[in-house]
Amino acid sequence: MTSYDYDLFVIGGGSGGVRSARVAASLGKKVAIAEEYRYGGTCVIRGCVPKKLFVYAAQFHEHFEDAAGFGWTVGESSFDWKKLIAAKDAEIARLEGLYKKGLAGANAEILETRAELVDAHTVRLINTGKTVTARTIVIATGGRPNPHMALPGNELCISSNEAFHLDELPKSIVIAGGGYIAVEFANIFHGLGVETTLIYRGAEILSRFDQDLRQGLHEAMSAKGVRILCHDTLEKVSKQDGRLCVETLNNGTLTADVVMLALGRIPNTQGLGLEAAGVKTDERGAVVVDEHSRTSVPNIYALGDVTDRIQLTPVAIHEAMCFIETEYKDNPTKPDHETIATAVFSQPEIGTVGLTEEEAGKRYKELEVYRAQFRPLKATLSGRGEKMIMKLIVDASSRRVVGAHILGHDAGEMAQILGITLKAGCTKDDFDRTMAVHPTAAEELVTMYAPSYRIRDGIRV
Length: 461
Description:
By secondary structure, the protein is of the alpha/beta class. The chain has 13 helices and 23 strands. It starts with 5 loop residues before the first strand and ends with a strand.
């Protein structure tokens, strides 16, 4: 039998990589994990966690305003960008330490180096040039922002990575993109007092979300003062007199202190040695895997964003646990990518799970759509004009709820709970039998007894 240095070698210290390494090591396997930047990956270091901290920071000015309607007098307030950055950095360092502590506690070997494949069982550690062998290898190197190299002046722009480390808070920013990263950062910067323009080539922001929520969020953002330019693209970025000039296709020339490109993320596979190992990739550079996350090389797996399946942290963790079941517990397990709850931490935020109305209309012959739009109780005294939208999509034949969509405060929290009910196959009758918690916004989900309209053969009736 061939002898290897390790039972498992993991390339990439993000959520999927750390989970697979830690659990395998806890099962008594000899494991090493290599990360070239910082442990925690995109989510912890330069994604979900610092972004949510920024979202909280950006919401306080509205909280101060709302307080007046409830009898509070709030004194003069000011915001210190450098204090936020310092606090965020301290929290990220703490979380990175916990990731490393978990790995060390399971007896996984932690390597702080770039690692590249030499062949199907051999990995080169770039910091030392040393090569090691492993029976099984996991590639979990995640994704990276698309630099949009075709854009003249792209080198003058930042991505979401750099947004977390700006020396100064800009007075104005132009953000290119219409996905969740672009939308979230547009709300963050605007909430912190930055003049914000969002440019998107499509007809409406957030192309993969339910149309009602897309339009509702667009209206809410515009009412707050975010300038949203759809049907437009950046043509060129140049520097003049210390500011950036942005030439657009349809809206002339804009000026800003910072231009941020949020034009999607691409798999982080460049220079990994995949070709040398015989690992196939697709036209976007994503590692091609089968239903068990195994690559074209039987002993090499790939997890998370590097496969370009569903770019969400909990999905990468789920895929890691399925890998453990498949490889080490003699229980071949396929990741379940159906009915995944997700959120956009915009202001107001979006929580969603299951099919949009448009998707469901293509899949089912007849739908019942339950829709409520209302002013939340808090807004009655604060005077804020924001509306909440709640929407349930029901297959008329089976009565099963196949989609649930929320726009409003705490929408992400509600989506997590709704994810359980939709995953369990609950019907609209189950919702109707459930007592409401009053007074809450969420009670609307169980008190919409009559459909707002029906969709038959894709047509509203």
